[in-house]
Amino acid sequence: MRGVAPLLRGFLLCLLGLVLPAGGHGVKAATASLRGGSRSMARQTSTAGQHGYTFLRNPEQVRSFVRRGYLVSVPGNRDYELSDVSYPYARPEVKLFVERLSRQYRRACGEKLVVTSLTRPRSHQPANAASRSVHQAGMALDLRRSWSRKCRGWLERVLLSLERQGVLDGNYERRPPHYHVAVFPRQYAAYVARLRGGASESRADVTTGYRVRRGDTLWKIAKSHGTTVEELRVENSLRSSRILPGQLLRVPQAR
Predict the structure, then answer these.
(1) Quick one: which of 35, 50, 209, 255 has the most CB atoms within 10 Å?
(2) How far apart are CA 139 and CA 93, in angstroms?
(3) Residues forming beta bridges with residue 114, ordered by sequence position
């Protein structure tokens, strides 16, 4: 009879669509479980505050942030698509997350990742949304839950792994079934830099000057020079993503 309780527990977890990390016991399992809750929401809100992010109130504010480069377009590509997304914009690091995750997801299970929500101003929050949802800050996205067990398993394992590393917060929501993911921009940018072989350290003393042109954003400049928004901010001591035409930036270069 000793094996009955663990088996029953495992069966119930499967029904709920949850995947525990290997050796899922103690504090780490409790903080990385895709279960959400008040602590999870507090952590997301606190991170938005640490980044100095504005919680957008209406569509006009969203459009203003897009014009100023604080939010970038997330249009979809061969690896992911958008479904019923009213505002296809997000923080640059969230776009980087979607592109990297969807590429790996498609390779792993053979289907596109489906994004169902990105930035969402307070005026367009659903009735069941938290009052301080970080969708309003542009640092969250919702992902559709696949019918494929293989795809669900892969995605949940990856989200749990990234959550344990402190670069995002993932929640499984049941109505409708989807994954709510709050990306922690600075932490995620640093994580990607480490994966790329310590890009920040290797480029620190190799820079070039760039004069900002009308229509430029940090995301566009970073992408065209093979660097990241976070590296541009650090190199130029920028407290936000705001830049002005004529401004001279130091751009890190690959060795």
Answers:
(1) 35
(2) 8
(3) 81
- Six-digit token string for 199: 């890009």
Q: How many CB atoms lie within 10 A of CB 170?
A: 23
9-18 per-position pLDDT tens digit: 444 444 333 3
| Cα separation, 208 vs 214, whole angstroms | 19
Torsion of CA 163, 168, 174, 175, to 10 degrees: 180
Q: CA 173, CA 215: separation in Å to the nearest integer?
A: 38
Tokens representing residue 107 in the block: 């390779």
As given in the structure block, the two tokens for residue 241 are 């993503």
Here the tokens at position 130 are: 């938290």
**Runs of H (alpha helix) within 17-91:** 26-31, 38-50, 59-67
Pairing of strands 89-90, 72-73: antiparallel
The one-letter amino acid code at 140 reads: A
CA 51 – CA 137 distance, rounded (Å): 10
Burial class (CB in 10 A: 0-12, 13-18, 19+), 245: exposed
pLDDT in tens, 212-251: 999 999 989 988 888 888 778 877 778 788 899 999 898 8
Quote the CA–CA distance of 215 and 217 in Å, as a whole number. Answer: 7
Domains, the chain, ordered by start: 20-187 (3.30.1380), 198-252 (3.10.350.10)
How far is the C-alpha of 16 from the C-alpha of 72, rounded, in Å? 34
Question: What type of residue sits at position 125?
Answer: Q
